[in-house]
Amino acid sequence: MEYIGNIIRPPSESRSMIIQVTVGCSHNMCTFCGTYKGVDFRLKDIDVIKRDIDEASGCGFPFERAFLADGDVLSIPASVLIDIISHIKKRNPGIQKVSLYGNTKSILKKDVSELKELAGAGLTGLYHGIESGNEEVLRRIKKGALPRHMIRAAAKVIDAGITLSQTVLLGIGGAELSSRHAADTGKILGEMSPHFASALTVMVLPGTGLHEDFIKGKFVLPDKFQLINELKILIENMEVRRDCYFTSNHASNYLPIKARLPGEKEKALALIHSVIKSGNEGLLKPEYLRAL
Asked: Distance between CA 99 and CA 163 in Å, rounded?
């Protein structure tokens, strides 16, 4: 397999066939992310991609899922994606799900008809990192999209019949915007109503713009219980219109939550409230176990 650089995948794709289609990220400006610094975004040679598919297909593992890496595979032409997905399914008839990352810009650049074509070819899932629903936070972290753009993008994915999984970042608003970030993020998730939603917790990485702001005192990281409170506020404001599986079980989080919303909303909130009320750090994940 000709993997180049760091290969990033969602936790749920741990048993998937991982095929690197692009190198880097098409946006690569987010202040909190240190993954693709110094890497020019590009599409890998299609023959190399197909050789990787052939090699993975011959390893003897009964893959049921495939994930197309890296940061923003949806930005490449739909015709190229369809060719890649078709080759995967031809070599692996048992694969039922094919997913990839797509940012807001790349979704909006695709017509719904193109997204439906991709769905028809076998694209079943799209991971969409929105980080926050607060406009000021999004501007500060240089996300490259605002809430209104994200809402339009989410609607297009869902209209095309593709499963939408969105991620947000607890703590990315800093202590200053903590409550506003959490409330607005919950509201936008409710409005978009993805099929899956996950909360991660921001970790300040050396070499990033966020780290520079942290060192200068421009960004103050919320403490552990402020972050748990953000999780509570987010869920309180998340009024989904369809069944949504919400999790905060990523390794970066202090408190893992799994809940099907809206049905299990009150149960999740009761658990979070009890942890906050206790003030007991022993109920939280210890620092040495946290990771990206």
From this structure: 9
